[in-house]
């Protein structure tokens, strides 16, 4: 790809990742983006940088280095305790204006989308939403190839931003791999002053009610999902036992959700969540295409179904034909045995 | 009294879009055009707020002339007036160009019909699906921005402050801010009413106000349509149906099969990664 139809962007170098957290605890998508950001930075032969904004969050800057960043920009001020659009976008803009990264990445979370949407408009520049593939063309074009699912996951589209810098994208949680944490990695922390008073910020966060029961299925690495074959709400307890044993969460097909056996937040598929766990159990799920689009990128898929012709077997790495009410408890028991319980 | 602007987009119901397996292209024929359903939740909340605090509701839509139908639906539900912003020059807009035109529209609405206190957009659309237009508008108009709103607690009309619940991945945030504000609506916000008969009759006769580029004398032409859009869709493709080599696990009874499956799983890196090889804490 020739670079001749593009302006001279030589002032813009490096990949910057926004580190999202709640009260100093990082969201895993932040480390995943550093992992992918490292690949892009290596290909472009530039620094991988991280942006940390919060109150008492110096440890996150150090963590960002352990997860691969060479340089971390840190805002640490009491006004920055909770995320609010104005102060956070003000701080981010300051770094982007001064450092001039060529690529900026955010998690496609509520906060990441809120912040990235504001920044891209202010700059202004292009922002690709909700990407699941990120690559770059090498020098001289250095273009970010940001690809995202479109039309309810039925297509993929690659989006470019040629006439503006930086190139920005939000990216889905659970798609990219974090680097192994290495506390011996070296990097530089650059502290920035935050110049805004509380009186200048209209928004006040009055309360945050953590939802303990809430499952974050999109980020789950192990999912034990059940469908209409379970026949009612009760057998989901059996799935929960296996999930607990493996450190996973329970998922469901739409048929199970529509029947009222389990809440929508567990639903996988076109009108539910798209998931990419390392291990996915489809239990009593036939494998309709609307279900498959939501889970076919899982690492290992295990299907359990009494119908040998169920389409789910075509998508599965391991298939077991049989009665789920016998097989699932047998698996749970065998796992327990191996763990010496 | 509140002046509320609700932004609505007419979208193809992408849940109904199919892929032609022979050509790998989208089959759009027969796909109904609907009001993006999150936007209807924005409109519903505007109706509730108007009932509580008084005022008026202006609905705006940027789109081709057939989008008039979407605006009429909003009139039938109870909006006071509707504006269609339409021009060939607006076509091909990405979120940056879209938020520019919508911000200019809302500015003009404010000048002609009175200052705007609250703007609603949907959380995201069914087609572009970016959720970026709301924050874009808020930025350009220097409005306070509260995204992913699942509940409006109330508005203190004297202090001109609003309190809402924002729905985040890990819980609910209660936040208060100043008017004017832009809110992005979730479906948990409310239950959308059905259009009452008088509303339907009103809508049948109603002609939306139409604005084109001519109606915006100060419009910066470099910021609209394809030219004003930094993002370019370079290519699109249908992801290949992953072909998987399925290994069927045989065995005479459930227990044999279970043992054999767990054997397979134990040969992967999962046990070390997830600590299955260490005994669980009691
Ligand atoms: C497959 C595909 C991928 C795309 N990817 C990107 C991308 O990554 N980045 C990018 O910048 N653009 C992208 N676009 C272009 C972009 O989606 C739209 O063209 C843009 O006009 C609106 O963005 P949206 O539909 O995502 O709106 P969203 O930001 O999801 O919409 C949020 C809300 O804004 C309001 N709104 C949006 N559009 C209008 C309108 N025309 N009139 C009134 N109110 C409106 C509605 O209330 C809506 O609920 C993509 C388009 C397609 C078809
Ligand atoms: C627009 C649209 C969007 C949709 N979105 C989604 C979505 O997001 N997610 C989704 O999942 N679906 C979605 N669907 C629905 C989808 O088409 C299927 O209807 C649904 O996935 C079926 O759920 P199921 O596999 O649990 O049920 P079924 O298809 O009824 O399958 C039940 C399976 O259980 C097996 N079984 C029964 N008893 C036992 C037993 N004792 N032991 C072992 N196996 C047993 C049966 O052999 C069967 O294969 C959508 C549909 C449409 C039209």
UniProtKB/TrEMBL annotation, chain B:
It comes from Effusibacillus dendaii. Pfam families: ETF (PF01012). Its cofactor is AMP. PROSITE patterns: ETF_BETA. InterPro entries: ET-Flavoprotein_bsu_CS, ETF_a/b_N, ETF_b, ETF_beta_N, Rossmann-like_a/b/a_fold. This is Electron transfer flavoprotein small subunit. Signal peptide: none annotated. Belongs to the ETF beta-subunit/FixA family. The gene is fixA. Residues 23-220 form the Electron transfer flavoprotein alpha/beta-subunit N-terminal domain. GO terms for molecular function: electron transfer activity. SUPFAM superfamilies: Adenine nucleotide alpha hydrolases-like.
């Amino acid at each position: 790809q020739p670079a001749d139809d593009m302006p001279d962007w030589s002032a813009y170098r490096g990949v910057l990742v926004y580190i999202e957290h709640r009260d100093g605890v990082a969201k895993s998508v932040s480390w995943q983006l550093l992992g992918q950001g490292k690949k892009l930075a290596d290909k472009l032969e530039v620094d991988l940088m991280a942006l940390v904004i919060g109150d008492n969050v110096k440890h996150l800057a150090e963590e960002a280095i352990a997860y691969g960043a060479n340089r971390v920009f840190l805002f640490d001020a009491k006004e920055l305790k909770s995320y609010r659009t104005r102060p956070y976008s003000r701080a981010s803009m300051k770094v982007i204006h001064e450092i001039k990264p060529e690529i900026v990445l955010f998690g496609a979370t509520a906060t990441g989308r809120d912040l990235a949407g504001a920044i891209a408009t202010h700059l202004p520049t292009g922002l690709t939403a909700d990407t699941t593939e990120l690559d770059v063309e090498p020098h001289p074009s250095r273009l970010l190839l940001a690809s995202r699912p479109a039309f309810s996951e039925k297509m993929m589209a690659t989006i470019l931003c040629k006439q503006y810098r930086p190139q920005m994208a939000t990216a889905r949680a659970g798609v990219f791999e974090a680097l192994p944490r290495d506390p011996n990695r070296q990097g530089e922390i650059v502290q920035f002053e935050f110049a805004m008073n509380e009186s200048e910020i209209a928004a006040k966060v009055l309360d945050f009610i953590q939802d303990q029961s809430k499952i974050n299925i999109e980020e789950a690495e192990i999912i034990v999902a059940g469908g209409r074959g379970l026949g009612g709400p009760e057998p989901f307890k059996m799935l929960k036992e296996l999930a607990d044993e493996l450190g996973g969460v329970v998922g469901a097909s739409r048929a199970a959700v529509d029947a009222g056996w389990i809440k929508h937040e567990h639903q996988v598929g076109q009108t539910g969540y798209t998931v990419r766990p390392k291990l996915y159990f489809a239990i009593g799920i036939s494998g309709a295409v609307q279900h498959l689009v939501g889970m076919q990128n899982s690492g290992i898929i295990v299907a359990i179904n009494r119908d040998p012709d169920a389409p789910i077997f075509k998508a599965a790495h391991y298939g077991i034909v049989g009665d789920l009410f016998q097989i699932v408890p047998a698996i749970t028991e065998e796992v327990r045995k191996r763990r010496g319980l | 009294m509140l002046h509320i602007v609700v932004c609505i987009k007419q979208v193809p119901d992408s849940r109904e879009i199919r892929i032609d397996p022979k050509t790998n292209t989208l089959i759009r024929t027969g796909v109904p055009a609907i009001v993006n359903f999150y936007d209807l939740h924005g409109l519903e909340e505007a109706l509730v707020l108007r009932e509580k605090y008084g005022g008026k509701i202006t609905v705006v839509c940027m789109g081709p002339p057939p989008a008039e139908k979407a605006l009429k639906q909003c009139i039938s539900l109870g909006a006071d007036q509707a504006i269609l912003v339409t021009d060939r020059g607006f076509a091909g807009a990405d979120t940056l160009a879209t938020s520019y035109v919508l911000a200019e529209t809302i500015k003009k609405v404010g000048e002609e019909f009175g200052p705007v206190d609250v703007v609603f957009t949907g959380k995201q659309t069914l087609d572009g699906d970016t959720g970026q237009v709301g924050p874009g508008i808020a930025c350009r108009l220097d409005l306070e921005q509260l995204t992913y709103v699942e509940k409006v607690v109330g508005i203190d009309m004297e202090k001109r402050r609003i309190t809402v619940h924002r729905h985040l991945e890990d819980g609910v945030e209660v936040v208060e801010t100043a008017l004017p504000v832009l809110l992005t609506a979730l479906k948990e916000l409310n239950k959308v009413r059905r259009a009452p008969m008088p509303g339907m009759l009103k809508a049948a006769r109603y002609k939306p106000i139409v604005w084109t580029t001519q109606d915006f004398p100060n419009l910066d032409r470099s910021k609209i349509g394809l030219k004003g859009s930094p993002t370019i869709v370079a290519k699109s493709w249908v992801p290949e149906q992953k072909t998987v080599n399925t290994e069927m696990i045989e065995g005479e009874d459930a227990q044999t099969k279970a043992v054999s499956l767990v054997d397979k799983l134990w040969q992967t890196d999962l046990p070390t990664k997830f600590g299955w090889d260490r005994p669980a804490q009691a």
